[in-house]
Model the fold of this input.
Amino acid sequence: MKEIRKIVEIGRIISNKELSADVNSLLLDCPKIASLAQPGQFVMIKNEMGSTYLRRPFGVADVNQESNSLLLIYRRAGKGTQELARLNAGADISVEGPLGNGFSFKDDGRTLLIGGGVGIAPLIYTARHFAEKMPDYKPVILLGVRNHKELFWSSFIEKYSERLVFTTDDGSYGRKGFAIDAIPDILREYPDIKHIKVCGPTIMMKGIAELAAKEGVECEVSLEKRMACGIGACLGCTFAGKSGRRWKVCTDGPVFDGVEVFG
Done:
């Protein structure tokens, strides 16, 4: 059994900012986990002052090892995240991580990063890794959002991109439609794209993984599943892959080959 390298650490809130009507950024002083986290991994957090019992998974949006900080971006979608949003700077959060296996990185071509909703968050650290470690292959980034009120993502990620493309459901900014609609044009414009990495709603990832397979482009998907433990004990996040193997999203993922998940 693979050894799970994780830490339980008390993270002190540096800031808890509202980015839009239902999205917050949470910046934590969390030096041990920040020093270990890799792009695509996640943490399980618990608000000890809240009313929910189980920890909740959050993708690592970014880390800053100089300031020992860990960035999480979350949607205020239920009781737990509403309570989390009410915490101010100086409050403490219990953080367990880093957990799971993140994205792979190859230097044999450019990568197209695609995100939808708060699934965009893990792509920030991923994009920064490319920009800093492989500057000749800065990623093209495609973000699908609901409307122009969600353009705040650009302030986190645009500086790491070769090009940033937005699609909006209502056409209020960028290209009207869904992210998948823009992919053929991007692949024609950037023939050196050899890899796609995507995180977002399941239906979005399924369509993109199928399109990538058709185009002969390697695709990794980052799955979001409800989970209670994050370490493979509860079996609440398992799924059957194309190979017939049952995978645990928490310990085998959350990043998987798109063909194995959706093939």
